[in-house]
Specification:
By secondary structure, the chain is α/β, with parallel strands linked by helices. The chain has three domains: 51 residues, lambda repressor-like DNA-binding domains (434 Repressor (Amino-terminal Domain)), CATH 1.10.260.40; 141 residues, Response regulator (Rossmann fold, 3-Layer(aba) Sandwich), CATH 3.40.50; 130 residues, 3-Layer(aba) Sandwich (Rossmann fold), CATH 3.40.50.2300. Helices cover 44% and strands 15% of the residues. The protein contains 14 helices and twelve strands. The strands form two sheets. It has a six-stranded parallel sheet with strand order 2-1-3-4-5-11, sandwiched between helices. It has a six-stranded mixed sheet with strand order 7-6-8-9-10-12, sandwiched between helices. Helix 1 crosses helix 3 and helix 9 packs parallel to helix 10. The protein is elongated and about 80 Å long. The N terminus is likely disordered. This is LacI family transcriptional regulator. It holds the Pfam family LacI. One of its GO terms (molecular function) is DNA-binding transcription factor activity. Keywords: DNA-binding, Transcription, Transcription regulation.
């Protein structure tokens, strides 16, 4: 049947029962198809979907959510100032992955900033009212109380990155240690021996692991880990600029730099240019993230690719599994499986370019 959708009995909105009658199946089967259950044959699924299209049936998500004590909404919480969210490609890539995974699900995504104490208190009150089914936490620091608060509130939560190696909250992370080690091994293979690093914020577990990888690569190559070659940054371009200046003042003989993010590498590049240092002739430079910024720098930046969009997608999969574990929770969507509450760690990859 083509053209306009058929009206329900009496000219009103089509019902679940009418879809079932049109497809020749039971009401429960229609419900399973609509909710993405894998426990339906392809033939039956096709019949139900055809009946839905013919009748123009629209699921009553509000009634379904109310009956299951669900809101059909999740929150993406960023405990950082808005300025940092819009300045760093990492956040937009996470959001892109989350949005892509939610595209075919009838769930709303709320973006909430909680960078100040006032915003955190307001967020706590909002979440305590259980206005969302689950929370995605992005950019969590070691002392961040939000994951524990959400646990106390029994709100399913997944974080990007971990606060420590024994994180109890479900998390999706990248191999920061392996990425840091690969970056420095690459610089060593290019003949560099006085290799500095600009760290991210060290209350972020991922930033510490990148430094651990830096140290491990030097030690494996028989090179001394010189603390004067390690400068703290803050994941900002200005922080990278300042750290690079500090390193050059302390060790003007350095011949390579591993920056803990592409944004900081861009700041380091500015300082190197201001000081008359050529990249890569005088100083080789490696970043982390493999963002669009890396490809557009002059020269293009060698960087460690972490699959940030895939991390966003994985976070949704883990969160839906956590929601499904709660009393009255929805079943995982078709093709998704219950995920154990242990960290999901995605691999990183070095992408060589002209800066090395």
């Amino acid at each position: 049947m083509t053209g306009q959708a058929t009206r329900g009995r009496g000219g009103g909105r089509p019902t679940l029962e009418e879809v079932a009658a049109r497809a020749g199946v039971g009401r429960g089967t229609v419900s399973r198809v609509i909710n993405g259950s894998p426990r339906v044959s392809d033939r039956t699924r096709a019949a139900v979907e055809a009946a839905v299209a013919d009748l123009g049936y629209v699921p009553n998500t509000a009634a379904r959510a109310l009956a299951a004590n669900r809101t059909d909404a999740i929150a993406l919480v960023v405990p950082e100032p808005e300025a940092r969210f819009f300045a760093e490609p990492y956040f937009s890539d996470i959001l892109r992955g989350v949005g892509a995974e939610l595209a075919d699900l009838e769930m709303q995504l709320l973006l909430i900033f909680a960078g100040s104490d006032r915003e955190r208190h307001r967020l706590s009150r909002y979440l305590a009212a259980h206005r969302v089914d689950g929370v995605l936490l992005v950019s969590v620091h070691a002392d961040d109380p939000l994951p524990d608060l959400l646990t106390q509130l029994a709100i399913p939560t997944v974080i990007s990155g971990r606060r420590s190696g024994d994180e109890k909250v479900p998390a999706v992370d990248s191999d920061n240690f392996g990425g840091g080690r690969a970056a420095v091994e690459h610089l060593i293979s290019r003949g560099r021996r006085t290799i500095a690093t600009i760290t991210g914020l060290l209350d972020v577990y991922g930033a510490r692991r990148r430094v651990d990888g830096y140290r491990a690569a030097l030690e494996d190559a028989g090179l001394t880990v010189d603390e004067e070659l390690i400068a703290p940054g803050d994941f900002t371009e200005e922080g990278g600029r300042r750290a690079m200046a500090e390193l050059l003042d302390r060790r003007p003989d350095l011949d390579a730099v591993f920056a803990g993010s592409d944004v900081m590498a861009a700041g380091a590049r500015r300082t190197l240019r201001d000081r008359g240092r050529r990249v890569p002739d005088d100083v080789a430079l490696v970043g982390f993230d493999d963002s669009a910024m890396a490809r557009h720098m002059d020269p293009p930046l060698t960087s460690v690719r972490q699959p940030v969009e895939d991390m966003g997608r994985a976070m949704i999969g883990v969160l839906l599994a956590e929601i499904a574990r709660t009393p009255g929770g929805p079943r995982p969507a078709r093709g998704q499986h219950r995920t154990p509450a242990r960290p999901v760690v995605l691999p990183t990859e070095l992408v060589p370019r002209a800066s090395t």
